[in-house]
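<tokenise_the_fold>
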Amino acid sequence: MNVTAARLAEVKAVAIAESLTSAQAARTLGVSVSTVRRMREDLKLYAFPYGRQWRYPAWQFRSGAVIPGLEKLVPAITLSMHPAFVRGMMLAPRPRLADGETWTTPRSFLVNGGDPARVASIFEELAAL
């Protein structure tokens, strides 16, 4: 296995390890599994297929709730975007979300009340490439 393939396998494994099953997401949010499914279908939660199930990345949850503004971001994330890529985009500091000279991650930006349209625009531009 070459270095690139090994690195890709590693980032895929991390994306899966840092995600929740439907039942785990339901417990985290204090709702039923069917509610989690509806939230996914209504694009209020981001999920990716893994085998015969859906996985819900942990980065979108905080203190038993969905991070603020997620429902405006999820429609901008296309299914063609690999979950490891989405994870990296959400957890790496972005210059376009800078407060002065300090960059912030899209997740932190949303948690701290940032405009979700700014984060969505990053994903929309990438989807258009």
Q: What stands out?
A: The helical segments are 3-17, 22-29, 33-41, 70-73, 83-91, 106-111, 116-128. The chain has seven helices and seven strands. Residues 3-128 form one domain.
